[in-house]
Amino acid sequence: MADKDPSPGHSMFGLNDAPTRRVTAPEEAPAPPQPQPAAPQYVVVQQTPQAVPATGGGKALPWLVAALAVLAIANLVLVLMARSQFNDYATKQADAMNLLTRRMDSSDERYAQLRGQFQVTSEKLGVTQQDLARAHALAAEVQKQQQAAVAELNQAIAQKASNDEVNKLQADSNAKIGGLSTDLAGTKQDLANTKSEFTNALSGTKGELKGDIARTHDELVALAHKGDRDYFEFNLPRRKAQQKIGTVIVELERTDPKKNVFSVFLSFDDKRTERSNRAMNEPLWFYVQGASSALELVVNKLGKDSVSGYLSTPKGFFPSTTNVLGQRPGA
């Protein structure tokens, strides 16, 4: 039975095929068939897989998951804390940058104002140079006329002119020299006046560059005594509060005590402008029509929805408004 069952292995090597027979000549009798040796048979026995005994890993798995969850929560808390600290640091840096930007803007505005004053002073200096050139021209003209007069006198003497002609030539020369001397004296006086104006302009510019700030009422009184400007105090106790000082109206818009900044509206010369996010004790300069120099506004006290400070103007610019010295007679 085993020989009749074909096997795939046997088919591969041709063991299941029937043996071929050769055809011989008819005169020879066929040889009797020889018995073939039986092919070897192989039997594969598969073992039944045995069940792996359960270990204690199933009980440790929940503890492992719980430990991973605790680590994830701890990492999340650390990340959030680091992010909060970074945000606080970034906020402080941004506030510092804003304050520096405001101070730079104020410096640029102050520089533009002083540049305008220096231009005016430079123009005055140009007039002085023109007058000086005129004086040199007059002096050269006087010298030229003196030389011409001497030449005429020498010519008259050489020609043996009469004494009357010589006296006449001398009188004409003296008259011309006297007129030129008068013109030269007037030019010198103009130069002196221009020099005085130039010195006063430089003194005023130097005072503005110095930038004295009063942080208390007593300091403001002391500043009013030693300066050539008038000082007027103001107090705005709430938002939208207004106070009129001369021809200028100051209106409080908002305050930020945490950042120590404020915003106000200034109304003058039929216009209303906003000065926003200004720091306390930071000078705020602006020009009003008719003023010889810039007006200065300083806030030296800042609270929640309230500010107080002073306005500085050129001497006598608001004659009908009581200044800080008038508020304290004898101070």
Structure description:
The chain has 331 residues and is an alpha+beta fold. Among the domains are: 119-210; 217-326, Tick-borne Encephalitis virus Glycoprotein, domain 1 (Sandwich). The chain is built from five helices and eight strands, in the order ααααββββββββα. The chain has helices at residues 8-13, 57-158, 163-210, 217-226, 324-327, and strands spanning 229-236, 242-245, 248-256, 261-268, 271-279, 284-286, 295-303, 306-314. The protein has a four-stranded antiparallel beta sheet with strand order 1-8-7-6. Strands 2-3-4-5 form a four-stranded antiparallel beta sheet. β7 (295-303) and β8 form a beta hairpin. α2 (57-158) packs antiparallel against α3. The longest helix has 102 residues, at 57-158. The termini are far apart.
Task: Please outline the helices and strands.
Elements lengths: L7 H6 L43 H102 L4 H48 L6 H10 L2 E8 L5 E4 L2 E9 L4 E8 L2 E9 L4 E3 L8 E9 L2 E9 L9 H4 L4
Antiparallel strand pairs: 1-8, 2-3, 3-4, 4-5, 6-7, 7-8
Helix pairs in contact: 2-3
CATH classification, class level of the domain at 217-326 = Mainly Beta
Strand content: 15-25%
Class per helix and strand makeup: alpha+beta
Mean pLDDT comes to: 76
Second-tier CATH architecture of the domain at 217-326: Sandwich
C-alpha end-to-end distance: 141 Å
Strand order of the largest sheet: 1-8-7-6
Count helical runs. Answer: 5
What about the largest sheet?
Answer: 4 strands, antiparallel
Rounded radius of gyration (Å):
56 Å
The strand count comes to 8
